[in-house]
Write a structure and sequence with these properties.
Length: 127
């Protein structure tokens, strides 16, 4: 089984929200690359208008990073594993219990649902 990498759009949002965990994989202007000699593309000094690199961690690594700042993403199977629903736990001022249901966030596969959940969880972080 191979870990799923986050999409370019998710990587951009993660970087905007402060994601800084090292990753040997990266997106370069929207295309995926893999290099063993570098580990943190968010701080790549050659980031220019022509070549912009963003870390492309696995979904699991980004999920772990989010969990460490108190946002928990839960992906639940529904209907004999034909659909996966997403729940996000994030304490808010108005909801002291911390459970923030995200309606309409689902996917046909676990990975698809998790990617959507990662995006919604990142949106909950103030820039």
């Amino acid at each position: 089984m191979k870990e799923q990498l986050i999409t370019f759009e998710t990587a951009q949002l993660a970087k905007e929200r402060g994601f800084d965990a090292p990753s040997k994989c990266y997106h370069s202007d929207g295309s995926f690359q893999d290099r063993d000699n570098l580990t943190d593309y968010n701080s790549w000094p050659q980031n220019t208008k022509d070549e912009f690199l963003i870390s492309a961690p696995t979904q699991s690594l980004l999920q772990k990073w989010l969990r460490e700042i108190h946002i928990h993403i839960n992906v639940c199977p529904h209907g004999d594993y034909k659909l996966f629903l997403v729940e996000i736990y994030h304490p808010t001022e108005t909801n002291k219990s911390g459970y923030t249901p995200i309606e309409g966030v689902r996917g046909n596969t676990y990975e698809e649902a998790l990617e959507k959940g990662l995006i919604e969880a990142l949106k909950l972080i103030k820039s």
